[in-house]
Amino acid sequence: MQNYIRQSLSLAGTAALALASIPFGAARADDAKVAQGSAKDLGVMSISLKDAIQPNFGFQGALQGAGTPNQSGIGGFLPLAIGDNSVFFLDAQANANFADFNEYSSIINTKVAGTTISTSSRLGYRWLNGDRSWMFGVNAGYDSRPMATGGTDNGVYVTNSRSVFFQQVALNLEAISNKWFTSAYLLYPVGEYGYNKAPAIINNVYTADSVMTAGVDVGYNLTPNLKASVGYYYSEGDAGASNSNSVKGRLEYNIANGLTTGINIAYDPAFSEGYSSGEFYKTLNLSADLKWRFGANGYGAPSIRKKQPVVMPVIQALSATPANRDVRVHDYCSPGFRGERCGVGEIVRWKRGECYLILSTKPFKYTRVECTP
Q1: Global pTM?
Q2: Does residue 255 or residue 335 have the better pLDDT?
């Protein structure tokens, strides 16, 4: 698994950084010409980053997605040190996580309930290339997610619902030009229910774990206010139920300076499968989000934007909020078992090849046994 993660990060990192150095046909050539023209004719080289990069704060919210909750909260970007061509920064968020939509579980079977507070922090460094046509960056941080649970969306009766605490560490690489943008990321579960540890028991029937995710996104600025991106990611959990290769797409629109909204669509097999009377079906995961950041030149700077509209995507990217920060959670009937309910007397298989006999579901108990072919 460690080799896979290293390979995934290597490939994703290469994709993120190579995008800045390889030609993109006419579009890449046009970018270079525009950047050179901007530097010479529009005075982009004379822009002071200390004026363009300011602290910003505001609100964000999102609807539930593949393993992520309905949420809203506050966040802020704080530049810690600004150089002639770079910035060292801290970005932090706190979100209230709300209950899932009625009869629709965001983690497959068990519905998220109640209100909990999740946190996310990123410490990063971003810099511009020589002619300020590209911005590169690296950031890392820690995310937490307490999760309260309730009933199910499949008719299975559960008792002894519990709240559990998930955590992850994150790494993100990014490269952004006036037209193109890309990022590669890794979300790695840690703590009591970290990767390769026992799953969390969330009620008398289901257990859950946070999902390791590694992926890469590539996007393009369709207009000054509209962005589109596509991405690939691989996810994996300890029970194997959340293992999948997935694709996603996103449209993001800048409503006004600092106010943006986005629509997301993902085909994630681990979070798109359900069982209804034994019939298998798949659906796409749809979600939307809204973010409002204010008090920052980096998110609009009207005076700068009017004079140098071409270079603003790169300059603004220096103080943009990092993406891919949710702790994704997946539940399952019992280790390795895929079905509608866990039954007493059934033998289930762990991802590591170990087999367990379910002794009781009230409370949930099992014991290790010899595996049968």
Answers
A1: 0.76
A2: 255
